[in-house]
Design goal:
CATH class of the largest domain: Alpha Beta
Pathway: Carbohydrate degradation; pentose phosphate pathway; D-ribulose 5-phosphate from D-glucose 6-phosphate (oxidative stage): step 1/3
Organism: Buchnera aphidicola
InterPro entries: G6P_DH, G6P_DH_AS, G6P_DH_C, G6P_DH_NAD-bd, NAD(P)-bd_dom_sf
Radius of gyration: 24 Å
EC number: 1.1.1.49
Bound molecules: 6-O-phosphono-beta-D-glucopyranose
Number of helices: 16
Number of domains: 2
Shape: globular
Distance between the termini: 45 Å
Oligomer: single chain
Number of strands: 17
Helix content: 25-40%
CATH superfamily of the largest domain: Dihydrodipicolinate Reductase, domain 2
Protein name: Glucose-6-phosphate 1-dehydrogenase
Largest sheet: 9 strands, mixed
CATH architecture of the largest domain: 2-Layer Sandwich
Strand order of the largest sheet: 16-15-14-13-7-12-11-8-17
Amino acid sequence: MIKNIDTGCDLVIFGAKGDLSKRKLLPALYKLEKSHNIHKNTRIIGAGRANWNAQEYKKEVKNSIKQFLNEEIDDVYWKKLSNRLYFCNIDVYKTSDFLKLKEILKIRRNVTIYYCAVPPSTFDSIFTQLGKLNLNSNLTRIIIEKPLGISLETSQEINNKISKYFLESQIFRIDHYLGKETVLNLLPLRFANSLFYHNWNNKIIDHVQITVSEEVGIENRWNYFDQMGQMKDMVQNHLLQMLTIVAMSMPKNFESKYIQEEKIKILRSLRKIDKDNINQKTARGQYSSGIIKGKNVPSYLKENGSNQNSDTETFVSLKVEIENDQWLGVPFYLRTGKRLAHKYSEIVIYFKKTSNNLFQYSCKEFPQNKLIIRLEPNASIYMNILNKIPGIEEQYKLKSYLMKFNYFKEISSYNLIDAYERLLLESMKGIQSLFVCREEVEEAWKWIDPIVNAWKKEKKSTLQLYKAGSWGPINSNLMINKDNRKWNRFDKI
Ligand code: BG6
């Protein structure tokens, strides 16, 4: 893969007017400018259906950055960024419009990156037009983002289409969770610390919990969300990606092929969930009206544009098992939902309980050691350790104390880098290890499809309502409680 670190590149953003571009990509590009990470020869070409000239586009970009970045714009860096901006009015169905783009790109023979910040329904046309006009040379890369299908079959269709014109080494599939600092820290935490490296298996670990709890609802995305549900919107990608990183074996090195290979092995080892075990291994829910941060919020069925009969889930929890020697007998409990009590995400590793006679009178019940990797908010790592309560008494009295590491407090230079900032930079460098390959996406769908199909057969019976602002449906607790375990509480670490 040709790198462009020394030469700069042309970054074409299809969907220049869209939400993703405005909320995420443009603020990220401004921040990359500010941290001197964009090569002086790099150009950014917004492409979309608007009759903007370059000046008008620049104005729009500045407004988006102002709106979505939590800081004042520095004129020096804005000027630099603004000098790179071009606009191309494109209807993705018109070859004549792509000829205009070709004209802009032709000026230089440079690495070109196409960012498809557009709905997947337009992917096919973009890939085909680029291919038809030979805008897909080995100097080009293409970035696509979910939804990469709504099932194995539809995701294969997208992958087949893109692979007609681009090699896998040119395709960058984004899962923004892979760009989060705390997710990146999972590999060093696991493999660079001997304590964890040697004890990361079913002899020592009891179970793992992964929670992504959101306060937001569906944010005016009814049409998109209702055909996805939380399972396809969050589990198929973000939660399964985190699970694979927690469970995978050490890759040979950081090259994408080795990392992806190890993640694929885990995805292939997931025990199937289907109609025969759906009720034991899953719980799903949909929010009814409630209160979030002191404000009344409507039920899912009363959201803008809703269809009153929908039985789409906005919450899901799952008991996932990995059928390999390392993890046999260690369940991974996943849970994620919208309109829950707090926005937070964490991975909790519960170590096995110990039992010994020495302290039988000091402690009624030995608490489990747990390692809490809090991704958000306040990126932190916690571990509880059983200690003697200081005092002169003869008897040992034990209590669990918490060791805390908070990124912001401990690392003075810690600077929160947005996931898109990092992933854009990686794509400019041509490094694919933080991106998802075709096989990963398809293996994930192979595991998800039977669950979704089993739910469909069960119809509404498996869907429980939960109040917005709560912790989800009761079945989610019952699912884990029947294994004599509890969800880790956000407020009680
Ligand atoms: C997106 C989903 O991929 O991730 C959204 O489509 C979800 O529904 C979002 O809200 C959550 O991302 P984060 O980074 O806020 O946890």
